[in-house]
Amino acid sequence: MRKRNKVKISQALLPTTIALVLVGSVGSFAAARKWDSIDLKNNLIEVQVVPQIGGRIIQYKLGDYGFFWVNDQLAGTEPPATGVGPKGEWLNYGGDKMWPAPQGWDNDRQWPGPPDPVLDGEPYAAEVIEKQGQPATIRLTSQKDKRSGIQFSRLLKTFDGTTHVSIDATMTNIDTKPRRWGIWTVTQFDTRNRHGDGYNQNFRAYCPLNPRSKLYKGYRVLYGVVNNTSFKPDYENQMMRVNYQHRVGKIGLDSSAGWVATVDAANGYAFVHRFTYEADKPYPDDSSVEFWCNGLGEFVAWGKVNKMPEDPKDNPYLLETEILSPFANLQPGQSYTFHYDWYAAKVPPDFPVVACSDVGVTCQPLTARLRGRKLVLSGGFGVFYKANCCPVLLDANGNKIKELGSPVPVNPLEPLVVSGTAESFGDTDIPASADKIALYLYDAEEQMLGELAGAKIQR
Asked: In this structure, is residue 93 part of a structural domain?
């Protein structure tokens, strides 16, 4: 901001480009890992896709930080033609994948995987639609699965100057009879301690509870014990808080807010899923969001009690954040598409995520207090775009009065911390009509991207 403004906003500019390249190994992995991947990247993110292992998005990186868990025991191994292990077991490579929902073992209207030799295990066809430009785009298409009667495809798009990845997940009925499934996307996050042994005790997730939830207490336990302290509903703030403790369990929520944030609070990194909730439609498990904590303990599945192994090599440190579409009733040949988006940002360490907008996350809500002529501001955020941020004064009707100083550059590779005072222009005080202050983000062409946060001015 201008020198007379004392608001401290610490950021760094980073020039960006975008390209899609074919590489012979997966990014930052060791040279021995020889999966062929499609690498979509700009100067903010890198998205590594491996079509040959069930069409997985094996890694998403913000700068040098990789969010997704990757199975070291399977990394770079040649996938078998059967799509499953030698004893029919699931080959859990890691990363992000999509499955049909609901999961179950009672009838053919439930998906009994993993393992699944076709939708999860066989290679996907990859089509590069736009190698460079806006947006860079690829399509992944599965084999046709006779058991479920469907075929999957995903359209991935990345954009310049942002961590945004746009995803259209489509399922098509390839059967001769009607089929009813939801689309289930499963993202496995790396929860190990990156600075020592064991797991990251400050790895968390946040998802708003539905104030009109159909579920008892706003969520339901799907697997594991009912008193798993990894899952802590905060009813005062209508938020489900997940704190990874390496204890096995799974819950589902009918969250209507349309976002879920998965956060490495120890290192200050947030990954966000955004989606649209359709309240008038039924969902698998009555859930739009589900969390699976990998860890010690027991759970019931496949018609038996399963005890998780003690060795972290066989029971790795990972958290799954999962989003689900409504059920789609498909006649033969019909398709259904579920759209969702990914974003990531560096955030202030050891802070929660309390809100999410189209342009960033709020970790510490914006406050604005008028002390004489000086407006005292505070707040902590992560942004999804390389942009310019400008505090703007608004009246009670939301009309713009004026900007406070010049816009400052922000980008997703640094947390945005606002603290201190912003003096008014000239010799005049903050106008009496000023009722609210908002942080707006603008692109390089001065087009507004959106409002990051807002606060009523306390006098």
From this structure: yes
247 and 376 part of one domain = no
Residue 298 shares a structural domain with residue 390: no
**Among 294, 315, 346, residue at a domain's last position:** 346
Which structural domain, as residue segments, surrounds residue 203?
A: 18-346
Q: Is 238 in the same domain as 376?
A: no
**Residue 351 lies inside a defined structural domain of this protein:** no
Kindly report, residue by residue over 357-386, the tens digit of the pLDDT: 999 999 999 999 988 778 889 999 999 999
The overall pTM is greater than 0.85: yes
Q: Mark whether 83 and 110 lie in a shared domain.
A: yes
* Signed CA dihedral, 240, 244, 245, 247: sign only: positive
> What is the per-residue pLDDT across 203-245, written as a single tens digit (0 to 9) for each?
999 999 999 999 999 999 999 999 999 999 999 999 999 999 9
Report the domain count for the chain: 2
Give 103-154 pLDDT, tens digit per residue.
999 999 999 999 999 999 999 999 999 877 678 899 999 999 999 999 999 9
The 3-class SS string of the chain reads CCCCCCCEECCCCCCCCEEEEEECCCCCCCCCCCCCEEEEEECCEEEEEECCCCCEEEEEEECCEECECECCCCCCCCCCCCCCCCCCCCCCCECEEEEEECECCCCCCCECCCCCCCCCCCCCEEEEEECCCCCEEEEEECCCECCCCEEEEEEEEECCCECCEEEEEEEEECCCCCEEEEEEEEEEEECECCCCCCECCCEEEEEECCCCCCCHHHCEEEECCCCCCCEEEECCCCEEEEECCCECEEEEECCCCCEEEEEECCCCEEEEEEECCCCCCCCHHHCCEEEEECCECEEEECCEEEECCCCCCCCCCEEEEEEECCCEEECCCCEEEEEEEEEEEECCCCCCCCEECCCEEEEEEEEEEEECCEEEEEEEEEECECEEEEEEEECCCCCEEEECCCCEEECCCCCEEEEEEEECCCCCCCCCCCCEEEEEEECCCCCEEEEEEEEEEEC
